[in-house]
Amino acid sequence: MAAGKIAAARFANLEAIAHLRRGSEAVSGFPDGAIKDRLELDLQLALGPCLIATQGFLSNDFAATFTRARELCERLSDAPEYPHVMYWLALVHGYRGEMPEALDACTAALGLAEAAGNRPAALNAMCGIGSVLMAMGRLVEARRMIERGLAEFDMCNEAEILATRAAGRDVGVAGMAVLGWILWALGYPDMAMARMGAALQRAEAIGDPHSQAFASYYASVLHAFRCEPAVAHTHAARCLALSEKHGFGHWRNLSRTVRGICANQLDPSSGSLATVGSELAEFVGSVYQFAITALYALLSQAFLAKHQLMPAREIISKGLASAEQNSERMFNAEFFRQNARALVIEGGACVSTNAQKLLEESLAIAHGQQARSLELRAAADLARLYRDQGRRAEARDLLAPVYGWFTEGFDTPDLKDAKTLLDELMCARRRQRPSAWRE
């Protein structure tokens, strides 16, 4: 057992797994009783994070470890590890895309942890709750929970920080990375970058490859949504390199998707999108579901940029189907906006009417979620539609208050594009004034 824990502390997951399995075999020969159960539970708790990193939450090996750890906790009745094990259950639900079940399990784990005075387990549960709420589109609640967890994290001692890694990664890194996505969606692109930067710095400082891969993936997606493909590609490549070196199959598949999307944006002549689409379908087919709609939204946008309408609509349909099946509605506004964009590109009869309905729905969803970044995109697209119909005053009145809400991020492409459009509409208004006065 000692050799396995030492290897795990060095982040040598595969070596640790081998040692810990040998330890389990040795313990299996002990006489039945509480001592044997306690020793085996210690082994399972050490083994779990190593399996999470290398095989993911949905592997058969991790399922067996979780099941055995839960059984041992129940047999020991007062095992302090029980909240950690119940959080594992929440993660299994989350990665299967069972968001309501994941939220219930995280909430239960938080209650168990707080009742037991187990701050590390409570921090993991808070991070889990925030992550699930984010995926469900409940962004304000998600931000509140993650920030609560990070405030608690700042008060932890080193032993408590190490104990949070029962979830397979540093909870400080995970919390700040998830908060980066939330803040971007809520309309705070600069604050999102600051939090993501802090997550990346912490991951490097502690030297945990799995936390580094976690932060790099979340950073790649954040930059992709900020329309910064070169930076996103760099982070995705970093995540992929870490994953291939350390055997992180889960992050390897995710980072390859983001890297492929960004590679196509950097070199539109490449044919990487078809490969990305097939790889993503294969990965999702292996049951992984958590926050998969983020990748659908990025991939469909890439297809639309190349005016490849059939694959774009196929991905959008998959995204909406996943959202409906999993209650994962963070990017529903984006999917409706993209469907409208596909109609505009295609042209034909009733385009304006149908696109307008979709954009109005996108705007309503984003507004209801307080997802200001997605609301701005929908408002800008609807304003362009109004402009092209000659409804410039309506376009200006629609876009101006949405753009005016923002207090940061003015160097990002979305805000620059909205400002350019708004300036155009304002100039048109000024040109119209003299004739109106003469009348």
Would you kindly provide a written description of the structure presented here, covering whatever features stand out?
The protein has helices spanning 2-9, 13-27, 34-55, 60-76, 82-95, 99-116, 119-135, 139-153, 158-163, 171-186, 189-206, 209-225, 229-246, 249-266, 272-285, 292-305, 309-326, 332-346, 351-369, 372-388, 392-405, 413-438. With 439 residues, it is an all-alpha fold. Residues 434-439 have low confidence and may be disordered.
Describe the secondary structure blueprint for this structure.
Blueprint: H1 2-9, H2 13-27, H3 34-55, H4 60-76, H5 82-95, H6 99-116, H7 119-135, H8 139-153, H9 158-163, H10 171-186, H11 189-206, H12 209-225, H13 229-246, H14 249-266, H15 272-285, H16 292-305, H17 309-326, H18 332-346, H19 351-369, H20 372-388, H21 392-405, H22 413-438
Helix pairs in contact: 1-2, 2-3, 3-4, 4-5, 5-6, 5-7, 6-7, 7-8, 7-10, 8-10, 10-11, 10-12, 11-12, 12-13, 12-14, 13-14, 14-15, 14-16, 15-16, 16-17, 16-18, 17-18, 18-19, 18-20, 19-20, 20-21, 20-22, 21-22
